[in-house]
TrEMBL record:
Protein keywords: 4Fe-4S, Electron transport, Iron, Iron-sulfur, Metal-binding, Repeat, Transport
Classification lineage: Bacteria, Pseudomonadati, Pseudomonadota, Gammaproteobacteria, Cellvibrionales
Biological source species: Zhongshania borealis
Gene3D superfamilies: Alpha-helical ferredoxin, NagB/RpiA/CoA transferase-like
Name used for this protein in its record: LutB/LldF family L-lactate oxidation iron-sulfur protein
Domain 4Fe-4S ferredoxin-type stretches: 305-334
Amino acid sequence: MQADCTSFKKNSAVALQDPKLQGALNNLGSGLQARRAAVVSDLPEFEELREDGRRIKRQVMADLDTYLELFETKVSEQGGHVHWASSADDAREAILAICQNAGAKMVTKGKSMVTEELGLNDFLAEKGITPVETDLGEYILQLRKEAPSHIVVPAVHLVQDDIEKTFVKHHTKLAAERDISTPESLVNEARQALRERFFEADVGITGANYLIAESGATVIVTNEGNGDLTQTLPRVHVVVTTIERVIPTLEDLSTFLRLLPRSATGQEATSYVTLSSGPKRPEDLHGPEEFHVVLLDSGRSELLGGDDQDVLNCIRCGACMNHCPVYSSAGGHAYGWVYPGPIGSALTPAIIGIEHSAALPNASTFCGRCVEVCPVKIPLTDIMRRWRVEEHQKKLTATWGRLALRSWTWLATHPRLYQMFSGIAVWSMALFGRRSGYLTWLPMAGGWTRHRDFPAPEGTTFHAAMSSRIKADAKGNNAVGIRYE
């Protein structure tokens, strides 16, 4: 998927004026947020699980090369193959070679955000190989030629009427024979269309929620069962994922299987948890003849050992998006790339560079809800703040903004002047807002005052008020009971 993160403000303005999109996004609060809150409240040890999850992921990142090498060894012992891809180009070429060696004309795909990062569908199509998405949401979006807008619920921006029209347009024969006016009938419609594809595919491509180092198994967690069909029916199974998805043991998996569904969809457990360990053995009735794992780096290893390393702990639950006021207003497409919401704002600059994604770390109110609900406690706001600092240091911010900040910094280091200018500013704003109590215009703050009024200050400055209190306290007259230590 081609990144276009520079248009976030423009995309957001369009999204805010789209009533259908706003109606769809409103379901996040009444649906995913509410369900998460309910299942979390029923699990008293949830906070302990969060700590365990963070501990396990940090343990892995501290010794990532060892765990990845162990995983590769175990995969090889079972007859599989691991392909190391330092860049998106390397990953695409590795997947293409596997498909061409298998003589593939069609591939089925289980949901994998990494293949979206690679732009794999368009790449394969250009090479004469037809990719077919089998996840319901991804399949609908493929028909509509749209990108996912959420990492767990990719079609969250659509309403039922959109899906009906899509099937009527693309399933001419099937849709004409049946009523597809209910959610159940829409699911059956997709099943009918996809059933033959599962049997026709030469290669099945899935993602992986986790890689088990001790056994060489890959794990996918789904609710539809399409992942199982994608990896067992074709002759070749290709797992496409990233290096940070490895965890040490099967026991560690149990921790994440309790965190992920609760955080993602508000379920105690998902319908399917599937572990794959190499190609089928002689005694197996079903399974692929070849098993490949493509491990993508694409800038992730550069985060190891740095302040932003914790962003690699992400388990792709989407909870940060579901609770983010910015995402809930603008939707996923506004972010312009694969990973939207707070996790996208923290991760995307590491992958494509802050030069191409500076708008994303600024797309946050820093309210902290994303940090509060993250199942592995990623300090997303701290990471976004550091990206803002790097943006400023590289002079990617507007010139007037850097000058304003430099001026404020100079004033802040000269207390007497700062207090004098603060007093003048408060007096001026109080003067202009004396009639209504609000300011409808402020210099260099038009983005705020165009849409909302700014309350005019009352009384004096903070410094002056605190100075008065301190003096009163010194005289033993601290009526408000404040201690200054």
